[in-house]
Every structure is written in C-alpha cells, then in structure tokens.
Write a structure and sequence with these properties.
The chain has helices spanning about 10-25, 35-45, 65-75, 85-95, 110-125, 140-155, 160-170, 170-185, 185-205, 210-215, 220-235, 235-250, and strands at about 5-10, 30-35, 50-55, 80, 100-105. It is globular and about 55 Å long. Helix content is about 60%, strand content about 10%. A five-stranded parallel beta sheet has the order 2-1-3-4-5, sandwiched between helices. The chain has about 250 residues and is α/β, with parallel strands linked by helices. The chain folds into two domains: about 5-125, Rossmann fold, CATH 3.40.50.2300; about 190-250, Orthogonal Bundle (Arc Repressor Mutant, subunit A). Helix 4 (about 85-95) links the parallel strand 4 and strand 5.
Amino acid sequence: MTPKILIVEDELLIAMDIKGVLAEEGYNSIINVVTVEHAIQVIEEQKPVLVLIDINLKQDKDGTNLGQYLLEKDRIPYIYITSYADKITMDKVKDTRPYGYIVKPFKPIDIKTTVSVVLSNYKHRFIDIVRAETPMKDDVPFIIKETINYINKNVSEKIEIADLAKITRWKESHFIRVFNKYVGMTPYQYILKRKIEKAKTLLVETTLPIVEISFEFGFQSHSNFCIAFKKYSGITPEEYRKLNQIQKHL
C-alpha cells in the first residue's frame, strides 16, 4: 500500500507542487485540506504516515493548533511549512515540538530530504538509545540497532535474514517479529527500502547505467530492480532520474 502524506495548505498551487515532489518519492499526498477540523477528520480516517502543516491557514485556528493535537496524540510525525521564521512564530512552533520545519520559498530537495529524515527518525524512535526520554528496560533496542547498523554498512551486498538473526542470537522467527515491532516493518522490507534509497542517490548524483546500479545493490536482474523500485517509489528508475535531471535545470 502506498504511504499517504497529508498536506494541510490553503494555497492550492503550493499544495499541488508539494504533492508532485512527494509523488517522485513514492508517496500519495492528500490535499484540499485547509482547516484544522478537516485535517483531524482526515487523520483519523485515512491514517497518513506524516502531516505537513502550513502554520498560517487564515482560519480561526492556525497550524500550531493542529500541531498541538498531534503532539498530544503522539501517533504521527509532523512538519511545519511556513514563510515566517520570526521569533514569535518560532516560539509558538517550539511549544508543539514538530519533527521538522521548512521555510518558504523551498526547493524540491528541501521537501525530499526533510521528509526522508523525519520519517527515518520517527521509525527508529523506539531503538534510538541516545534520544530515549526514559532509561531502556532491556537490551532489545541495542540488539536491533546492531542489525540495522549491519544492514546499512552492507546494503550493497546480499543480506540474508538468517545472518541478521545470528547477530541477535535469536531464532529467525523471533528476530523477524521483534524487528517488525520496533522498526515498523520486516527486516526484508527494511533492507529493500535502504537499497532503493541508496539507488536513488546514485541515479541522481551519477551517470552510472541503471543496469549497473541494479547489480551494484545485489538485485538478480535489471528487471527485478525496476519492479522493486517502481513498487517502492511509484515510478521507474528511468523516470526518477529524468525528473530529477529536469529539476536540476529549473
């Protein structure tokens, strides 16, 4: 299922622009939501993975009211988008503890990088030992983090779930269950996600042939890579490279 991102923005052209940028990263964006009340309704019904909030909604309630609601619920990360960065605005923002902040006018890369970092940090919040607000009661987060470090260091190689389980000294089925609980996806899904994310970097920053990139990350064939890439991102590697080349020249 394609992950959904809610964009609470009362300037339709800006909302459509953000939606287009996020579509390149494989997200399905919900727009035409301009009030706090409507946003809460959409959040409860459609369960987005992230909310982008314009602070100045020109309504009785502004974006920080929605941020306060999300802070209290503590189920979904949220990012503010605004043209204001003055002290008064920042003071209001800090009280709602957003996961990110983007100042208009922004570039597509600002949206892409902020969304990527926020979702990654949120996904790893249960194993982020440094940021934990309360002491860890057991060593599970430490063990899971070891496997994630291993995946990140060896993302270009073929990684077997059995080898990850050996790092934890748990049975494979138990490892998969615990990993899913703490990270929010299976080890296989996480490995594939990291491979695609790394491949995106090579597509944008190098001129390596796509077939070479596919074998760089251990895919059995170019077609397997393209199928996995499109399933994760919503577009083919060729389309992703072309879109980013166009944006570089704008």
